[in-house]
Amino acid sequence: MKRITRAAILFISQGAYAGKAPVAPGTAGTVLGVLLYLWIKELPSWQYALLCILFCVVGTWAAGRAEIILGRRDSPTIVIDEIAGYLVAMYMAPTTWGFIAAGFIFFRVFDVVKPFPLKRLQDIHGGLGVMLDDIGAGIYTCIILHLAAYLLRTV
User: Fold this and answer.
1) What does the DSSP assignment read for 9-22?
2) Alpha-carbon distance 29 to 118, whole Å?
3) Torsions phi, psi of 71, nearest 5?
4) How many domains are there within the chain?
5) Could you list the residue range(s) of the whole structural domain that residue 38 is in?
6) Widest CA span of the chain, in angstroms?
7) Which segments of the chain have a pLDDT < 70?
8) Hey, CA dihedral for 55, 58, 64, 66, is it positive or negative?
9) Given this model, what pLDDT does residue 24 score?
10) Residue 47 and residue 147: Cα distance in Å, rounded?
11) Residues 77 and 67: beta-carbon distance below 8 Å
12) pTM above the 0.85 mark?
């Protein structure tokens, strides 16, 4: 693999090297997801959705290639899945600080606990296996945030 391609793959898959954090690289990746969310949260929903899809597709490719480069399956330094997962979690959720924080907390809990069937998705080989459990954690979080927003509107 060419050196520039290798560097680009690691840069993407490791979330601009947030994944090289010495402690809790997944949390560092999610923090990067929060920062990215703050930058794009005002986009129209269709543009936000396209960016989520782009992160998921490019992330799947980069994570798969990074596993080969790093010689390790689902390396903790690969955090593009946390970034994409958090963006999915926040899709059309209220943009208040409370919801941003709740999204962070719920996403991290689902990512760590991996409720059914997320743990099984992680068994899929390659970039798809790296990404799917986090995308699922993002979907679970998104559902909870929208349910909370609905309940708060009706109270």
Assistant:
1) HHHHHTTTTGGG-S
2) 19
3) 65, 30
4) 1
5) 3-15+24-154
6) 58
7) 1, 155
8) negative
9) 95
10) 23
11) no
12) yes
